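About this split. The held-out portion is used to measure sequence recovery: a designer receives only the structure tokens and must propose an amino acid at every position. Recovery is the fraction of positions where the proposal matches the reference. Here is one held-out target exactly as it appears in the evaluation file.
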């Protein structure tokens, strides 16, 4: 994307007041939402605010757009509004999408770059300009995000969900596989809980293996923290998908987390 032309597109962008920049995250997000609700063309405004960041971002090259959290929030709100997209705005969105795809690895947060790219494709109806198999492959990197299932469907991949879940399982992304399976009613609940239980057991084995190989308390605690984070993701999955048959597993995870925390520092 041509740096000057893309940023000229946003030269009249509505930006948040200086006071809003310093009042914290809540004020920032409230200001963003107010701007979108008041804008006559929110789809254009969002592009402008991505191309002309509220906060200066460290960019690796003039043509690289860095995606950060508040811009994902922008795109999420735009998805809710579901505005009509003018052809000229879609054209600029397509330029941005090509730029993001070409420079994803240049972003500090690869995950956010992928998520932003997929959201652009959904909101601005850009999928036809990209290879569908390549786009589908990218979903594996964001499959745990709260909006991933909705994006998957909005981009028309519902008929490929079975293969996608198998792909997630092959990548050992068990929690994501369970989330998508629940969303599309692919498997029996007991089978999904068994998958989660095996995932929990594997996380325990990995942690114990690391701890046995070192005398470093720092390395041991890092391994324990990683297992705790993994278990937390499983608990969230159980809760969000209301897996009633996972009550026993939930208790086992709670106990394991207590054990891990009690061992920290030793």
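Reference sequence for scoring:
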């Amino acid at each position: 994307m041509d740096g000057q032309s893309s940023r000229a597109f946003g030269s009249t962008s509505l930006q948040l007041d200086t006071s809003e920049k310093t009042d914290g995250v809540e004020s920032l997000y409230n200001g963003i939402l107010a701007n979108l609700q008041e804008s006559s063309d929110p789809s254009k405004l969002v592009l402008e605010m991505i191309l002309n960041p509220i906060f200066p971002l460290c960019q690796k090259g003039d043509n690289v757009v860095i995606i950060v959290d508040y811009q994902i929030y922008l795109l999420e709100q735009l998805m809710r509004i579901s505005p009509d997209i003018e052809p000229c705005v879609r054209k600029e969105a397509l330029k941005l999408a090509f730029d993001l795809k070409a420079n994803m690895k240049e972003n500090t947060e690869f995950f956010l770059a992928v998520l932003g790219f997929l959201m652009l494709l959904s909101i601005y109806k850009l999928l036809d300009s990209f290879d569908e198999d390549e786009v589908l492959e990218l979903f594996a990197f964001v499959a745990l995000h709260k909006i991933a299932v909705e994006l998957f469907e909005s981009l028309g991949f519902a008929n490929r969900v079975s293969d996608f879940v198998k792909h997630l399982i092959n990548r050992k992304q068990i929690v994501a596989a369970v989330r998508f399976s629940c969303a599309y009613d692919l498997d029996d609940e007991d089978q999904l809980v068994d998958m989660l239980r095996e995932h929990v057991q594997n996380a325990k084995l990995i942690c114990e293996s690391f701890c046995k190989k070192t005398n470093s308390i720092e390395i041991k605690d890092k391994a324990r923290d990683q297992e705790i984070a993994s278990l937390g993701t499983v608990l969230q999955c159980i809760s969000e998908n209301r897996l009633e048959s996972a009550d026993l597993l939930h208790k086992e995870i709670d106990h394991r987390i207590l054990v891990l925390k009690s061992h920290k520092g030793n």
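Annotator remark: Confidence is low (pLDDT under 50) at residues 1-23.
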